[in-house]
Amino acid sequence: MAPKAKLLSSVPSPAVSEGATLPPLYTADDIKRATTPAAADLSPEKYRSQFRRDYARLIHCPGFRRLQGKAQLFPCQENDFFRNRMSHSLEVAQIAKSIAIKINDEHGYFAINNIDTDLVEFAGLAHDTGHPPFGHNGEAELDHHMLEYGGFEGNAQTLRILSRLEKKQTQTYPHESPLPVQFSDGVDVRVGLNLTYRSLAAILKYDREIPRSMSARKKQNNDRHAVKGYCWQDRDIVTRVRSHVAGADFEGEMKTIECSIMDVADDIAYSTYDLEDAFKGGFLSPLSILAMPDQQKAAIAEKVQASINKNYGHLSASEREFTLVEYNATLRAIFSNLLNAEPGFGPEVEEVDIGEYNAALVSVMSGMSDDLCFNGYYRTEFTSDLVGRFIRAVNVSDFDEKRPALTKIRLNIGEFIAVEVLKTLAFNAVIMSPRLKSAENRGRQVIAEIFEELSKDEGYLLMPDDWRRLVEANPDDSEWKNRMICDYIAGMTDAYCVEFYERILGRAAPSIQKHY
Known about the structure:
The chain has 516 residues and is mostly helical. It has helices at 50-59, 62-65, 85-106, 108-112, 117-126, 135-145, 154-165, 197-202, 214-219, 235-245, 257-280, 286-290, 294-311, 317-320, 324-334, 336-339, 354-374, 376-392, 413-431, 434-454, 465-473, 478-490, 494-504, and strands at 183-184, 187-188, 394-398, 408-411. A hairpin with a 2-residue loop joins strand 1 (183-184) and strand 2 (187-188).
């Protein structure tokens, strides 16, 4: 079991079949849903790929800008030092790009058919665009209100924002003037940022439809937690994405290599940088992690074991075994510098009493633990080292010779375990802590009351004009109305959500001069 606790285990990438003629990595998947000519006074940009265009459209759109006002680990108003969803997304994009460069350098096929780093970076920047206000509690509350209408889930909302909600193009605009309401003969003609199918595939982490009704959710025992997937209203979009990227004959769940890279990069960023914020915020320290009661450690080990079984089922039972023994071994590998500390005694001291030695050792370890939490140099070096180790441990795990676009990548088992341990530590010690839960619970109540108010007969009139017109496009369709309300609330930043609540339900006097 000890080898599993070592970081940077060496696992070679699978070889490409010798002499095989393999399909290209990118083909007709750079097609967009709606065609648009260049402006009359601008020449075509042959030097700029469609994926680079998608990247530009993302970083200039309101949905991406709003990420700076959505919390990552700690509420945005607490301190401007801590990460928000935008800074987290920037870190995910950087890690994802580094992984892609590594694979392009090391793998035979991708050395010739390079993974597009613009596309990978796009996926990292875009992956949390659908994140609602107030974190997972906000997601849970919106899902609760939408149980009868296809639920709500952050990844599904990312697809909706990029492919439908952003106001960049429609099926008719800019060829014609945009319709006051983006409908034509009852068909929703919005295409969001009008991204390529491959870019949309890069953020489609869960290629499965969320059950449409509460009864269907209950049959799957999924009525209490948000279901990972895509919204049923976006089924046609996903069908076209699958057809262009994987082929009309493809069966099973689709996940592109860019999406796979983004997913691993997200885990790496979450496990390291959320831990760094938890250290800085005083929620955790290396010593508190190491001294955690065995009961809490065992609960974390159980969650990590489930994740190992899910993602590394091809390994033998003994290779997948993860008990309290392996958990402690993993912590020893992560915090080896701290655990290998030695108290310093001058050369003039010939013999040290064991009690004196232990006291000095505790003092040294306590000081090093504090340094890691509150000294920016040590803390940055620690997380940088972890990220570097994790990136080096990412390899191609399942090369698809028929469809290279669907090739899978993953961490070596030792580094995967370390990432899962750190992720679970951050979740249990910080996200589930009473200090954070009190703030999140307030956010959930705010969302619940806003949703209830907007759902009333004429409650939608409190929404901005463009959202009001969308509701009025299908005035008798309660499912449509509730989805529009959900889309509107999900797009709010944390601060705007509270401000909107105070304006319509709180004690603050409303202002008729306030523009939405």
